[in-house]
Amino acid sequence: MGEAQARARQQQQVEELCAAAIRALSGVPDLHFRGRRLHRGQRALPPFAPHLHPSLEHDDFASFRGAADGLALRLAGSDAELHRQLCPAEPVDRMVFDWLEQLRVESLVPDTMPGAARNLEHRHAEWAMAFHDAGLTESARGILLYTIAQVCRARVTAQPVLEAIAGIIEHTRAALAPALGEHLAGLRATRADQGAYAGHALPIARHVGRALRELDEEQGKGAGEPDDERDPDGRSGLRLMFEAGGDEGSALATAASGRSGVLDAAPEGYRVFTTAYDREVEAASLVRAALLTELRERLDRRVAGQGAHVPRLARALKALLAAPTCDGWDGAQESGRIDGRRLAQLVTSPTERRLFRVEREEPVADCLVSVLIDCSGSMKEHVESVAMLVDILVRALELAGVASEVLGFTTGAWNGGRARRDWQRAGRPAHPGRLNEACHLVFKDADTPWRRARRGIAALLKADLFREGIDGEAVDWACRRMEGRAETRRLLLVVSDGCPMDTATNLANDAHYLDQHLREVVARREQEGRVAIYGVGVGLDLSPYYSRSRALDLAASTGNGVFRELLEMIAGRGRR
After folding, report:
1. CA proximity to 128, closest of 208, 237, 243
2. Three-state DSSP class for residue 339
3. In 439-456, which positions are buried (b, 16+ CB within 10 angstroms) versus exposed (e)?
4. Rounded to the nearest 5°, which phi and psi values hold at 161?
5. Helix (H), strand (E), coil (C) string for 139-167
6. Residue 496: other Cβ atoms inside 10 A
7. How far apart are CA 121 and CA 542, in angstroms?
8. pLDDT at 505
9. Which 8-state DSSP code applies to residue 46?
10. Residue 493: pLDDT above 70?
């Protein structure tokens, strides 16, 4: 158990360092590793090329640096939209084409970065030897892919093929030359122009794909299927490439989750190193008045373009959240309960039938809906859609007579801030627990009507409020606020695009410390039953954390469709 935890922590540390290097070199801020795969926000990026996936078991740190440099160059030097337009339809062709694009961007490493050039060369050499040592060059498929990778890299970078493997690929290289000689020669000449380069890379990819399919038909194997039995550890990276097919991960994937060895072993449970820097603040107070006005105008334009029917949504919410409540009596009825005040009419008007009264019921929404928004860095790309959704929902709730509040959670700093510095001054005690400055934001409280709170809601659009996320404590905080209210029914909608993420806490404890705490908080609150908690996943299925959840694709949803999905979730009609 101890060895497994140490290995997991080492993997996390290496991934954190590599992610930082990739962010710095590529200029893309919201990059991180999850499940040993690079993600941009919550979207898994394509594998790009087999040699970009080293492992701690077999590779040195220089290989990780080389892979990180390769990923950064790909993000900085390749037009992803153009690449998608040019990609061939066949999965194997697409995989080879993607690989060739990776070789192109690696050949463009600036002369001012000799360290990156050495890292890339080292990583490719290590991968090439590992591929051969795994026995993958012994199959017809393996030697074809291997030869293409070596020859194309040599052509585009003007670096010779490794001496140790030149003899291995000689026969296959000679067979390729007549068919692909012109296109192989054109790779380096066009490497600075992605479109022109594709004019040579596409014929190469299609030739290789066609050859692999012919081999597979002869041998009765799936098209381009890698020889997994020869590579049980997946060191070549080909298995990931074939499984992914060069496509981006699904926008509606399921949140990754796991057990925390540190939390399981802690007798006192979840810990917080210090609360000295925690704060709860009105979000509008963090934004200049002039900027807040601009943000509100921007949000108004987005809401107007959405085309949502607010009164109709209000009626649906009232029907769903309101309960029939006695609101007096209606007299002079022909049926119901006898009204003693009208009995004298039996004497004066024996034929009078309207001697009864009935109880009058009106639907009353004795309910509070709180929206808790994950204000971590990866949510910035969704912030306009989320702000639009929240603004319309709050207006509709108010029309339905339902109280509402809009809350958010983030951290006061990146990478631990003052809390982490205090921990360092204390001698870095092991497993300190949460190690950052928790910041809880109030965009709208339950007593403030929408018209007065609309500027505060617009503060959601201020991007620098978004840092890291400590979800479990935020859910607890939101539930405590709700329990202090008089409403009998309480609903908490947690809007998030992923698992809890705080770099300092994860590095000082383990990767699933905050993750497991969130699950424990939600389970405890659901068992108590005082607050009904719903997970609203922005492009992600949050069911590992919330028993009632719905994944929303805000980029694809238009009009009233997204609100219909929210109503179905609250009504308990299915979960997605």
Report:
1. 237
2. coil
3. bbbbbbbbebebeebbbb
4. -65, 145
5. CHHHHHHHHHHHHHHHHHHCCCCCHHHHH
6. 31
7. 40
8. 92
9. P
10. yes
CATH 3.40.50.410 corresponds to the domain 261-317+365-571: yes
Kindly state the average pLDDT of the residues 39-45: 74
Q: Is 428 left (phi over 0), alpha (psi -120 to 50) or beta?
A: left
Q: Cα-atom radius of gyration of the chain, to the nearest Å?
A: 30
Cβ contact 152:103 at 8 Å: yes
Residue 527 has which token pair? Answer: 């068992």
User: What number is the average pLDDT over the span 222-246?
Assistant: 49
SS3 60: coil
Decide if pLDDT at 252 tops 70. no
Angle between helices 114-133 and 163-189 (to 10 degrees): 130
CA distance 529 to 304: 37
Domain edges within the chain: 2-244, 261-317+365-571, 328-362
DSSP state of 424: H
What H or E segment, with its residue span, contains residue 489? strand 489-496
pLDDT for residue 454 is more than 90: yes
Which residues contact residue 499 at a Cβ distance below 8 angstroms, ignoring those fewer than 6 apart? 34, 255, 256, 257, 471, 514, 515, 518, 545
Query: Hey, CA dihedral for 119, 124, 129, 134, is it positive or negative?
Result: positive
What pLDDT is attached to residue 561? 77
Give the CA diameter of the chain: 120
- Which amino acid, residue 23? R
Instruction: State the Cα–Cα distance between residues 340 and 344, nearest whole angstrom.
Output: 8
